[in-house]
Specification:
The chain is of the alpha/beta class. The strands form two sheets. Strands 1-9-6-4-2-3 form a six-stranded parallel sheet, sandwiched between helices. Strands 5-8-7 form a three-stranded mixed sheet. α6 packs parallel to α9. The longest helix has 30 residues. Bound molecules: fe (ii) ion. Fe (ii) ion (FE2) binds next to α6. The site of fe (ii) ion has 4 residues, from α6.
Amino acid sequence: MTSYDPADSPIGGAVGADPLTFAAVRTRFGDGVADELAAELDRFGVERPLVVTDEGVADAGVLDRVVGGLNRPATRHFATTEPSTADVDDLPLGDADGVVAVGGGSVIDTAKLGSAVAAHGGSAGDYIGVDTLPGPTLPLVAVPTTSGTGSQATQTAVVSHDGVKRGVSDERLRPDCALVDPTLTFGLPASVTRHSGFDAFVHALESLTARDYRWVDERPITYQGANPVSRALSARALRLVHGSLERAVVNGDDREARRRLSLGSHLAGAAFSLSGLGAVHALASSVGGMVDRPHGACLAVSLEPGLRYNLPARGEEYAAVARWLGISTAEHDAAAAADLIDECVRLRDSVGLPASMEAFGLGPDDIDALVENTLVQERRLVTNPRDVRADLREVLAEPLGDE
Ligand SMILES: [Fe+2]
């Protein structure tokens, strides 16, 4: 029976014997911190900010709440839900000397790239890849309005370029400050809460159970595998999100649950920005490329196949996580690991997310494309605990009805 704390490494090793990197966004968290935006802009000397947001945030009255007291001229721009490099190039940067993001992941990613283009010119497409920025960006303050992507805590922006989703990853894209104010999420509808919250849940779980950093070849990007710092963050995030997601979906007025989800999603972003993610996100991105469904829904149908795929490499760790979350009292690891997968399925169903890829109209004929699109996602796959070149097809055959 496994008895280690999931926040520690399951495979031993002396802390510090193998070097690691960690960075974290400067964060203010708690009720009302969004009111500190003007003071934050003062800190960075920003006098003419570009505020990137979206119509939903404005319609909900959240935008006026956040930027109402800025006391300086601010240009407002509504970003699209699936930003492209062309959208970033069209930002009204003018003579902006700083960028503020008020919104979810798409808004924050658009703002990140806007702050890079404003500082260095060129087109957003020029910066696709890793460590491509020649210097610092304009000051960037991120104010998340959902509890999900954690983009306010990461060094990456996802954007479509020539019709394909691409990433820009650079430590300079990590915002200068995140104002994580749970009160901004109090009025979110259940649909947004379930999709964004499930994303946070998967960030925490995939980050916690990612390949250990000592087994990931060193590379420029800080997605270096699960390590003593990321595990502590993801374990805390997992408990917070697991204990609050259903509550916040069922009763949007449950403020304690909203606050826990807010902190949990932020810490999950901070965690995976250090560790990286894995096959579940790679598979969900492939699904998302083939059907027009929210990221959270694509994760919902990818989580069980991904966990089952990694089970041979992570049985002991899944068991420890299940016991630590208090969802298993099984004595044997195999049974406790199965309890973790069952709990993920139960949570998915409980919050009302789709159960299978078949619900999206995908079937056996789509397996080849899904496997192919998943295998090219190097960024995700090198931190997956199991070598994904092993038979991924076998895992997709069952959910897609190929007997
Ligand atoms: Fe995600």
